[in-house]
Amino acid sequence: MMNKNKKINITYVELSKLKPAEYNPRKWAELTLEKLTDSIKRFGFVDPIIVNSAPDRKNVIIGGHFRHEVARRLNVEKIPVVYVNIPSIKKEKELNLRLNRNTGQWDYDLLKEFDTNLLLDIGFDDGDLEAIWDENLGAEDDDFDIDDELKKIKEVKTKPGDIYRLGSHLYTMLNLVWQHWYPLSR
Question: Where in the sequence is the domain holding 45, given as residue range(s)?
């Protein structure tokens, strides 16, 4: 049961004293670490690491393994820590999973207000951006029949290698079939 009156204390702890949990199921790509490193360089450690203070689990990291790894790579001596006393390894693992899984959802309407380059720089990918603007990318059914339209073409005016600019996108015709257009940049 949660104690509502207990204050959270942030303590700066030597990095060498902290131990990553051997069971931590999160993995990361090098790009993820680069993005987090950039963020920490810009803003510092604004999110403390969650560490167990129970005697048998003393200094085992429960949440914040990425931040711990970035601190190690940056040769940081001390990082902010919030200690929690969880003697049960089962409960410790549960909290680790919850901290890693409970990431919430995005309000896509509010995200649309942010600069796309900032979103990409922070780590949003093409899939995220599609989700943000997906409603505007949909097509209405207008009874367009691609086969009928293709039959109407008497002379092909494009050739492989032709490059077209549509807004900020560049496309090249790879072969004479329309579905093989390829975006060169986004």
Answer: 10-101
